Amino acid sequence: MLNEITVTINGDEHHLGVRQNETLQDVLRLRLGLTGTKKGCEVGVCGSCTVLLDGEPVNSCLVLAASLTGKEVTTIEGLAEGGRLHPLQASFLHHGAVQCGYCTPGMLLSAKALIDRNPDPTEEEILSAFGGNLCRCTGYVKIVEAVQGYREFLDPEECPPCPPPDEESPYPVVGRSVIRKDAPDRVTGRAVYTGDLSLPGMLYGKILTSTIAHAKITKLDVSRAEAFPGVKAVITAKDVSNVIYGVSPARYDEMIFATDKVRYIGDEIAAVAAIDEATAQAALELIEVEYEELPAVFNVADATAEGAPVLHEKYPTNINVVVDQNFGDVEAGFAEADAVVSRSFTGNRTYQAPIEPHASLARWEADGRLTLWSSTQTPHYMHYMMARVLEVPMAQIRIIKPAVGGGFGGKAETTPLDFCSSYLAKVTGRPVMMKYARNEMFMHNRGRHRQEIELKIGVRKDGSITAVKQTVHLDGGAYTSFGIITTYYAGSMVPTLYKLPNYKYQGYRVYTNLPACGAFRGHGCPHPRFAFETLLSEAAEAIGMDDFDIRQKNAMTPNTSTVNELSILSCEFPATLAQARQASGWDKKKGHLPKGRGIGVGCGGFVSGAGYPIYRSRFPHSNAVIRVLEDGHAATLHIAAAEIGQGSDTVLTQIAAEEMGVPYETILMADCDSDISPIDLGSYSSRVTLMGGNAVKMAASRVKDQLFEIAGRRLGVPPTGLMAMEGRIFVAERPEVGMDWAEAARIAFSEAGPLVGTGFYEPPRLGGSYKGAAVGTSPAYSFGTIVMEVAVDLETGKVKVLDCTDFHDSGQIVNPTTAHGQVHGAIVMSIGETLMEEVLFTEDGQVRNPNLHEYLIPTAMDTPRISSGFVDSYEPRGPFGAKELGEGATLPIMGALGNAIYDATGVRITELPITPEKILRGLKEQA
Amino acid sequence: MRLEDFQFHAPGKLAEATHLLSVLEGTARVVAGGTDLLADMKQGRLGAAHVVSIAGIPELRGIEDRENVLRIGPLETPNRIAASDAVLRRIRGLADAAGVMAGYQVRNLATIGGNLASAVPSGDLPPALLVAGAVVELTAHDGIRTVSLADFFLGPRKTGLGPDEILTAVIVPHLPAGSGVAYEKFQLRDASALAVVGVAARLTIADGVIATARLAVGAAAPTPVLIPEVAELLEGKPPGAEVFAAAARIASEEVKPISDLRGSAAYRRDLVRVLAGRALTRAEGRCRNEEVPSC
Questions:
Q1: A597 strand-pairing partners
Q2: pTM to 2 decimal places
Q3: Taking CB atoms and an 8 Å cutoff, what residues of chain A touch B48?
């Protein structure tokens, strides 16, 4: 039975018949197409579905539509009036408060209600108003600044103030805080994410997963589900490809559906397509599965014990990756040391928890091609893997990446959603949409590996490091995923920060009956870096040296080959140390803070893109096409790089504009669509600015070369003497002699047809010749230092992070506002991982906290004051000197925070996360 | 995630609602803000053939400062309670609690009636109401009864609310002059988190001596509970750090916490002791109209 309601939405009265169990969220999204109201958790925690109900912000997922008669609802689509942005929307744009944009509509509506009831809120009131709006990208800093600054945008007639010029940049476009390309759509609710799409005749799919951690399937009967009204198809292993897939070709070990047995709670068994999501979900419960339960293992020790049950026959010890690397002579190094410190550390299994859940939409076209829309951060690898598993040529598949609401590594794999939607669409002949609910995201997981680390460092009295030995056991879960690379990275990145004369690393990745772990921001490195930064500070203490002095003593320098043969060109690590030390007031504070207050330093850095692709491929890593529009006043940039919130579309268009010599606004970003834009390997290993940027720069330069030919002819000068800047081509030595850029482009088109430039980037051959030498190679490395100050409640153990002072060497910064936003987000995410985040399991392998109210990520209220800065740096291998930032910025935090907590309490917690309970236990033991 | 189908009823009058409940004979769930019920139903923890919304019943709203009592309608939201002058004047600790519940949007939707009727052991509002001696008014189609809040909670998510009853008011007796109530919450992040432990304290001080002391704890027993031993220890004594510490110790011994995701039983006992001391100190300040800053 339907309930008739009359409700005003964005000023329009709607008469609707709604189902009894329909939420306001579903009415807005599914009935009215107002998909600016997002869906992130469905139980009132994430806040991405926030709308105003009679002017007050509420979670639309918790409001029954049947109760809405007489109410007024405002959604993000109703915030701008008469096509004019609300001052808050303008302020969000100008302050860089938008990254992936998935939380943005909810944030804006919470902010709107706040300024309506209090036009001049204090910082504390702003933070409190956002306590129910989770964001995983921004660290909240710029969102708060945007609310604080909204008054500057009150007068709609006045041109909104431009962001402050960044005076240090030697370039007109690069180094400027231009407004993100994608931000206007994100503040107005127009950005379309995969889960927002709707196609005529679209069905919804759901996947049935195992309820037992390790079992043989003895019976699988889908007949009742098939007969359920509204169900259009049910598929199991016999209906799909039996090609084994995964991430690294050497360890492909996954199949679309379990055939012989299931290996974790969440292993896929069957999938259903039905007329709506609820029907598909209901049908899953009608599928009969009988299991013969097998013994299971849930940790490294049990999985590697004698006689442990085996997950994959090919790996009878359950150890599926072994790394043994030895550089120099560690034992001799330790013998030379004046002090040797060692400790065990345990990293936590954390989850990326992007606010946008994974979604996939598949449609088979009339010509037999598959179109797949997916929330992916690696569209090319998905393309490759879909073709491989479906056993069709890549050309028969079209991959489209709509807006993506954060990834952090969790959307770097082809998921069962992508395979199942494609098969269900094929079987039914209709488009099929599939999404993970929040708990399913946690079950699929692919989060950070839990690492058990043994670390030993030897130092001389002068602080110089003589030897480092590290052994790591990684709990990998039931499949390999990115695990080979993770295991290598856990060791290979240790020698990039400090000069280590002798280094030994042993890594073991172990299968357990838990969801598979994968790549998560900083891939494999944060836990070893936490261990190293902690133990290095202990070594300093042992020899009576300052934390900064020992770091400066060993710090990497430019043009160095590390002990494991990684080639480092630019390196301003010492400058980041010096500036963080000075700006934080370290020397005044360290050792002088009262009990309960502490200060700590940590450092870290990362690759600017992996030196080698995941599968053996001859394609350049990044490829770009720039097509100038006929009148010369715009150009489209085609590159299938993956904007997932980090700002890469903006950075790439800035690079194109800079090189071509046109204003930023001239460059338009073409869709990330494999039919339209050429391959880029995607957003992982912090690679897009350097690699995508180099490809774009080459394409832009080839456009420019063609115009210089024309302009040279026109102006009667050799093309080599020309320059282009801000839409004008001119003689470098006589700038008054020149012509309009667009005019040159029009001539080019008239004479020879489309004006196009193509570019590509392939990293140089890098690295040593030992086994695993490829992992850790990169054209360039970032470096950073952070000082963190904390207050610890000595009675409860609760940590309040007060201040962070961060300096990063990221080469030439392309867009300072988005760069600072990356640092803020990295800091707050890492604070979460250090202090509160951990995926926990029951004794039988079930996730205990598969939601955002029990798996806690930081809220606006948990955000410290952050000061972020960049040191002068130029990377010769990067476009305009740029290198990575997004992942490297996470690496210094864990160590710094652990060191600050130690300084405040005298308690060393070596098992992450550093919870209040652990700190209190430590304080009690101390007493 | 799926909301099972149910029959939705939205009576406009209390009498209609109670009549409906009597007819539906235990197959219905009452919904007010829906923040607990819908989340529980979506996660498969609860089901119901009928859902009766009381959100449209005007007489269930309002905060009335009457002659001897504060009467709070069950539909009042945490945000309205936290900002209510009457609440701030009469039972400031309830405003503390309402202001730190969940996130801002949930505080607009959730209701005091729902927070009590859900009887989640970690609920933020019960401890402050318990220490003030609040009673709840329960209305069925054939009569009204009042039950002290202390007797209302029977177990985790279990109350004395009959299947045909609606919680129609929360009645807080006025505390004598010289009284103060404070609520302390420990959570693992600073917003949108359940209490690991929540402690409310109420003191009435006359002539330099504690006339009445009440301490209630959330998330450290199957229900929010009063700790009577604290009253026994404190009443008749002058307030002070030492007696508060002793009371806090007793509280930590008397609670029956469990170990879960948010903390072990032992840690919860530690937290009860710390928060009890802080809540007593702040309540004591409020007896003198002084605000001791929360830690």
A1: A791
A2: 0.97
A3: none
